[in-house]
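Annex B, item 7. Sequence and structure tokens for protein A, then protein B.
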Amino acid sequence: MAGEIIKKKMEFGGETFDVSFRKMKERPPKNNIDRGELDENGRPTYCVNGWGDWPELNPRTYEVAPGIICEQDVAIPMRDGIITYADIYRPKDDSVKVPAIIAWSFFGKRPCADSDIEWQTKGVPYGSHSKFTKFEGPDPLYWCHQGYAIINYDMRGVGNSEGDCNIWGKQEGSDGYDLVEWLGVQDWCSGKVGMAGNSGLAMCQWRIAAEQPPHLACIAPWEGTAEAYREFLNKGGFTEYGFNQFLTVDFVGNGYIEDIYQTSLDYPLNNAYWESKIPEWEKIEVPAYITGGWSHFHLRGATRGFMKISSTQKWFRAHRDFEWPDFYSRFGIDDLKRFFDRYLKGIRNGWEDTPRVRIDVMDAYDFDYQTLRAETAWPIPRTEYKRLYLDARSRSMCFEPQTVESKLHYDGNLGKATFDITFNETTEITGHMLLHLWVEADRHDDMDIFVAVQKLDEKGKWLPTNVFGVPHPGAPGRLRVSLRETDPARTEHEWQPYYTYDNPKKLKPGEIVPVDIEIWPQSKIFHPGEQLRVEIMGHYERIDWFEPFAWNTDNAGNHVIHTGGKYDSYLLVPFIPPKYVAGNGYAYR
């Protein structure tokens, strides 16, 4: 029965766990596609059935467009005998061998099957990509004309592929190895294989590249969350149920799919199961082009991946847009083509001259202060980390430690506390932040804290940056106070403590404890008179956003924040000085 949950006993790190698997849905009716809203010409503006279509097996080869063929439902064996299936789009002319680009995910490999409509991604203009484009993947009708093959793949357990679907773990990595090596020796293949796509199609790339398949020449994980526990399910140590709860319920297959949300209910604390889903960064050695959006939950994985992989040929671009319009933009496609031309075709096109890091420095609303600014590394080497000390009396921040002890409280479920500082000169903040707080739970034994770092104008009005026309709440941070313990041996940077998430320490009445809350990176410019605000609250706050994020919080009574004296609460901020200063106020950034 679709939706049925079973438990599989699986071993990780010498321990046995009951891992939840959900029975996948049966194949939906043909062309069961939600057309979403229509524009004035009757064209879909956003089809929510982005997972794709799962038609019955129909192996055949046909011409999808002049000069482009599709080998449909090609059977590809895994090392354990499981058969998986792919649709292979490639140039019709067999006289020239071409590289392969894999679009791997648990989304359906045939987006619209025999439908007459084009799959639409939010924020991407109609006509930008063809109906053969897998959700969040490269468009075969573009890339095949550029001399590549696109492999729309149904991983183990998805669609007609056999077995049960394991996500973001060792099984995915070893299956990816087998797929890469199968492709690399096909008659039409040049022997070079790459991977592309964002979100679900990026996250898999960390695991597959770590297996080091010989024919894998490069990867392009655009917007790739890396750690399932810390970045996806339990950001801050407590479960996000809104997005994760629906993530695995709509996929189609003959077997079961690993349901990490259900597993998190049985194992809310970090353990060997969750640790098994952390990529083996040091084993990733191939060239990599990584992107991250300042306003999306994939950002931490993208920055961490760029910093930690072993590849000496790696590039990072941080942008202000949502992942879909960035991936399908003219700039994005052209830039990715230059990368693939260099490492899949060996074309000496000057790609190496691309700055290792490029960032958009955001201003307010839909405006950027700078775009694609070149930097040599991430974090930016000239960063000056400074502490802004919180003062509960004035609800402000300043650069000097406060000597007078004070405190403020807010309702743990609905209230918030804010602390502001005004900048008298142009100020850039780019990078990772950390909030060090002394906190107390009034009439409860735990606290779930949400943090947002924002920009205000000179009159105190919020100046958000917009995503799809909706204000983004600011650079986020979260922490369950009972899971505040960190491991100094695994903490590589002051601004990114390594939380163990495995040893709850409930609060006693009247107990005041220090916590360090990691805040995900951002890049913003502050003009003279503008203010930086840190919001501290016990609830998630985002207006009119289409992704249904929601958290199971454990709050009651009041949250109390202590500042001053021995309670040195502060915000650690990455200030970026200009690259060049001259004359009376001239600064080049």
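Protein B:
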Amino acid sequence: MPLNIKNNYFWVAHIFAVLAFAPLISTLNIDLISGFGLLAFGTLFVSSVVYGKRAQLAGATESNKEDRAQGFVSDFEDRGLGWFWEIGREGELTYISKSISVTLGKKQSELLGLKFASILSESRAQDKSQQWMSLGFHLSSRTSFSDLPFQSSIDENRYWSISGSPVYDQLGNYKGFRGNGLDLSHREESDRALSQLARCDPLTGLANRMEINRTLKKSLLGPQDKPIKCSLFLLDLDKFKPINDTMGHLAGDRLLKMTGQVIVDTIGEKGQVGRVGGDEFQIVVPGITDQVELEQLAGQVIENLARPQLVEGNSVIIGASVGISTFDGLTDSIDATTLIRHADLALYAAKKSGGGVCRLYEPAMLQQASAEREFEEDLRQALVKGQLSLKYLPIIDVSDRTLCGFETLIHWDHPTKGAIEPHIIIGIAEETNLFTQIGDWAIRTACGQLKSWNTDLRVAVNVSPLQLKDGKLVTIVQGALASSGIQPSQLELNIAKGVFLEEYSQNVEVFTQLRKSGVRLVFDDFGTGYSTLGYLRQVRFDKLKIDRSFVGGAGQDGHMNSAIISSIVTLAQALKLETTADGVQTPEELKFIQELGCSQAQGSVFGEPLTSQDATELLKSSGIRLSASALTKYREERRKMLRPVKLCYHQYWFDVIIKNISRNGAMIEGLENIPGGSQFQIDFGNGWKISATSIWSIGKQVGVRFEEPLDLSNLDSALLPDLGRSEAKAS
């Protein structure tokens, strides 16, 4: 009863006492002091009677409540509906229902004080310790949980479903956990299987996508709905698909099980592991946001997954990439969806960097993803609106220096970004599944263009693994040949090395059908990456295209590239195949590859790729058998020079020499072993700086392509004074 109500009753009692005793006192012949004493005694007497009765009623009410609550609990336990447990801060049992001690054949006092986890079986948990890991995770992160199935470690015939929540005192101090359990021993096995299926991945026994996301949401919410620090790992296997394709799906499933267990063993109780589909795993790591600690943990996972594993008697090695996102517990408006999105962007960055690494999310990743989405949409619209075109790179017969065909390159003049390099178009197209459409368009366009020229020249078109996977390549090629009317042998398909990584047996069948149709097959970039002689035995090629990395500098004394080219040519001659040297830059290189016996050559020595209009004009003016000398008209202006410039690479400035230059690129001397695609900034002097990208590197010479074409008329005023040949040579 509230205090103010008690006070009201108190004064009522006193007033009643005064009214009751006042007449009596007035009839007695006693003095004033005795009268007041008698009145006080009466008041106390009445108050004690009133309050005594009221306290008796209140005590009876409270006792009834306790008896009723205890009755409910006892009835719940006696009827076998469930049992209760409570643990302290260290996980020791401070209370457990008597019914459990009876069931397990133990005294209640024998169970109290034991670790709660000790009465649950780690080795006999239904899904190989995943529930065990979940319990440790929730107890350490102080998050509530429900319906975790366990087997008793004391009685193996007992199965329980455990639920619990953290307990705090009035000051918010953590005291332990309290919860209940349900006996699953007498339920049908199908019920347990359905419950397991709803929460766990059926293959690995890990938490499924729904369950791991539920765990993430709880971790973000934290104890008492107070957000805490939390991190998320998104892990993707780097080499799973080739193994799955070559060894079969059963072997792939076994490998996924082994992978899941390796991740669980590595993470331990620091996080909860789930499989969200395919070869992708998600790991919730509460309480840790330190970058160094997260990178060490992710690095350990990557290292352990990189170790050989035995699958069906075969030793296989897979790799993994990890994207990491974090929540510091303070950021506003963060949720599970956002954290997953950030981890996905970080994983994408890790995969793009070559795999086998971890990357933490940075805001720039989101900006980059937005830019790529915008670029993807622009490319999609360019395809619909007919903004793409083909350029034609001349292929020259080395023996008589005459034109024998063209290789097609995709060209796109972006409305705001200008000319886009073909490799950028292809990269975006392959990542967004647009390349199948673009590749099919390129085949039809090339065949139609060759028909309009009315010549016996050949045209080569690059083929992506995605076109083979699509399964329509043979139909597309046959349709393009039929509609154009050209001879099938006039169409060459450049088969990229990446084709041999996916669905190999299926691809061999596609190649067989293409050869039956009369199309010529070219092994592109031979000698690099995954090139192997085994492919030459399985697939009948017509030509080997020697990669440009072997061609550059082949004529230099003591250079190993010349020996490699000579070996490839000898192999091709033995197999009665043609050879094309790609990336020929100088007349000296052209002469040398001719001496080595190459059949054909292509590269900037013959000029830049031609538009269809320029190629048509060239063929009309020069006839079918075109001399290479006629191509000089279409070769861009080049200047030979020896000029010093400043070049910025990886935030460091170097003194280098420009040996020759054109509107679109230059050859620079002074840097060694520069990877292709490296970004530079070149300072020509007088405040004139431009951006460039390396396209080849041989010794100390690097070929670069400018981001924007130069006006060569500005060179004389911008470049520093000529050093002279002797000084340049000395440098």
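Comment on protein B: The first helix runs from residue 3 to 27.
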